[in-house]
Design brief:
Blueprint: H1 11-33, H2 42-51, H3 55-63, H4 70-82, H5 86-112, H6 114-125, H7 128-134, H8 140-160, H9 165-179, H10 185-198, H11 205-222, H12 224-237, H13 246-257, H14 260-273, H15 278-284, H16 287-305, H17 318-325, H18 337-352, H19 361-371, E1 377-381, H20 385-394, E2 401-405, H21 425-445, E3 450-455, H22 459-472, E4 473-475, E5 481-487, E6 490-498
Parallel strand pairs: 1-2, 1-3
Antiparallel strand pairs: 3-6, 4-6, 5-6
Helix pairs in contact: 1-5, 1-6, 2-4, 2-20, 5-6, 5-7, 5-8, 6-17, 6-18, 8-9, 8-10, 9-11, 10-11, 10-16, 16-17, 19-20, 21-22
């Protein structure tokens, strides 16, 4: 396994590459800001509300969650400077995204030279996963940036043999920050350790294991006790994660490559016609590919026993994917590839981020404010209540009496828990009966009461409440709102109105 250092680029090429890089960063800024004023999702509302807490309460909330504190502490200071508007909050992720592109360019230049480095940066910038992380008020863009920085410094150890104190200390600092950003950062550290051990005959393993040990020590000392408690909550917090399958692989390839898969066949064909030997290039430049395989393999293997892997976590390997693919462009020419990637991405950007606002959480809050009364009832399922309440509270609007089903969602509004477990069905059936009986009692006092029922992403759970409502109320189809693709947690808002009292 080896990696060939590029020949020094001429100064003219370096100057042109700098101009192209600036243009790419401007295009990436457009990607990050595209539709960035859309309403918050449930996860983002949790981020904003948690980061707005006083420091002590913030740490308490995080310890009860499943994530380390670094991103939320940064976000806390960010919103105190720039406010809690959607664009203002998401601009922090956009900043990390731009810094990640810039850092990956420099890493790629160290490995391949400035021309291929620009394509590598463009591959990352145009990746749907990178764009989504830039438009998402969560820690994933920061996680990717720190993963790239760690890889860059690691390559200097492994490939360049630069073991001076400065880069080594910086490597430790970056890794410490990474471990306090997301537990997924440990997967890339694992990959670095395994690959380094393969090289132990050439390099001093002890000199490398020392900074690795220093990298994880602060986390083990300061956060490991909290982690043990969080692991206890992980069965609830990760209940939505599925075991690896073909559909997961397909989703991952799309999120990694995006428009690349439309362009790649042409690149391969042109390279083949020019006699470019892919196998030789892969063999010579195999380090990023080996790191990518090791980084993704461990969580996939763990997920066979306990599902932990999802597309968001895969962001730790996105830069390695770009570094692994970019040598293919070497045989097809490199001048127009970044432009083609950017132009095609612009054309397909609405597919990555829908521009529909019909059923986003802000619009749903407005709809509820305009059509309901304080004497009405709203039943929220899945993760719909917290983000809609967020916008109702911002507008200081009167809103109906609210219930969540199942009620346990209110105890951990950032995730659903194990509500789809078949063994829970009898208890949920009883809860649905009690809930509707309580609403019927309210209706006996206020005959004009209506019930706004938010159908979520689990029809089998919603059906428990629907059957009870249909026994005692009448559905009003003319007041129904259908949400096709507007929210991952909402499909329809049904309205039920009172009928003549019946015996039950």
């Amino acid at each position: 396994m080896s990696l060939r250092s590029p020949e020094p680029s001429p100064s003219k090429d370096s100057a042109n590459s700098s101009l192209y890089l600036i243009a790419l960063l401007l295009c990436a800024l457009f990607f990050a800001l595209y539709h960035s004023n859309a309403a918050y999702t449930s996860d983002e509302v949790w981020s904003v509300k948690t980061a707005s807490l006083p420091y002590g309460s913030l740490l308490t909330a995080l310890k009860a969650d499943v994530h380390p504190p670094l991103y939320f502490e940064i976000l806390s200071r960010w919103i105190r400077m720039f406010g809690i508007g959607e664009q203002a909050v998401r601009s922090l992720s956009a900043l990390f995204y731009l810094l990640a592109i810039l850092t990956l360019y420099h890493l790629g230049r160290d490995l391949y030279g400035s021309r291929l480095a620009l394509i590598c940066a463009a591959l990352y910038a145009c990746s749907p996963l990178a764009i989504l992380s830039a438009q998402f008020a969560r820690m994933y863009a920061l996680l990717s940036l720190l993963s790239i920085l760690s890889t860059w410094l690691y390559v200097r150890f492994l490939i360049k043999g630069r073991n001076s104190f400065g880069p080594m200390a910086l490597y430790v600092v970056v890794n410490v920050l990474g471990t306090f950003t997301h537990i997924g950062f440990f997967f890339i550290l694992f990959a670095q350790i395994v690959l380094y051990l393969v090289w132990k005959r050439r390099l001093d393993v002890k000199r490398f294991l020392l900074p690795v040990a220093l990298s994880v020590t602060p986390y083990l000392v300061l956060w490991a006790p909290v982690l043990l408690h969080q692991i206890g909550n992980s069965s609830e917090g990760l209940a939505w994660v599925k075991k690896p399958g073909l559909s997961m692989l397909t989703d991952l390839l799309f999120l990694y490559g995006g428009v690349l898969w439309l362009i790649l066949p042409v690149v391969v064909y042109v390279s083949w016609r020019k006699g470019f030997r892919f196998w030789n290039e892969l063999r010579v430049n195999s380090v990023p590919l080996a790191l990518l395989a090791l980084t993704i393999l461990l969580p996939l293997l763990i997920s066979i026993i306990k599902p932990v892997f999802n597309s968001r976590l895969a962001i730790v390997g996105l830069h390695l994917f770009a570094l692994s693919v970019v040598p293919v462009f070497k045989g097809a020419g490199t001048r127009v590839a970044p432009l083609v990637l950017v132009v095609v991405t612009v054309c397909f950007l609405p597919v990555v981020r829908t521009s529909s606002e019909t059923c986003d959480n802000r619009a749903l809050a407005v709809h509820l404010e305009q059509t309901s009364h304080v004497t009405d009832v709203a039943i929220f399922t899945s993760l719909t209540r917290m983000p809609i309440d967020y916008y109702l509270q911002q507008a200081a609007a009167n809103h109906p009496v609210e219930f969540s089903f199942p009620a346990e969602i209110d105890r951990h509004p950032g995730y659903e828990g194990r509500i789809t477990d078949p063994s829970r069905r009898p208890a949920l059936q009883q809860e649905a009966e009690r809930l509707v009986a309580k609403i019927v009692e309210m209706q006996s006092i206020n005959p004009a009461l209506r019930v706004f029922f938010f159908h979520g992403s689990h029809p089998e759970i919603d059906a428990l409440v629907e059957r009870e409502l249909e026994k005692r109320f009448e559905r009003a189809p003319e007041q129904e709102v259908r949400c096709a693709g507007g929210s991952p947690y909402l499909t329809t808002i049904s309205v039920y109105r009172g009928r003549a009292l019946i015996n039950y």
